[in-house]
Structures are given as structure tokens and as C-alpha cells.
Write the C-alpha cells for this entry.
Amino acid sequence: MGLKQKALLYNFLGFAAVFLLFRFALPYVLAIKPLYVSLVSAALAMILAPKFAVAHIEGTKKVMMKWIFLKGFKEL
């Protein structure tokens, strides 16, 4: 598996985990229709999920992560 595929898989898994967390937790907090719960969960997951990308650093390709809760970039 190439680095681009790993970054794509990590992006999907990060989004799915955050989305499912909000999807099942929000109905306990908010009394809104299920469609709106899904839309709010998707919007929050897009903002809060970590982002992964392949970067060329010193001639080598590395998978990097950026997250709003961490300062800067983190190498995986």
C-alpha cells in the first residue's frame, strides 16, 4: 500500500470515528430531526477530524498529520 492510499485511509477513518461519535451523541443533547443530526455531525467531523497528507521532506515522502488540537504538523 502506497503512502497516498494510507493517507486517504487515515483521513476516512478519522472522519468516520468523529462522525459516528457525534452522530450517536448529539441526539442525547439536541432534540432535532435525524437528518439534521447527520448534517451537524458531518459538519463537525469535517472541522474536528485530523487531516493526513503525503509531504516531500528532505527528498523522502512522509505521511504528515495536521489537527486543530495540535500545534504544527506531526509525522507518522
Remarks:
- The first strand starts at residue 51 and ends at 57.
- The radius of gyration is 15 Å.
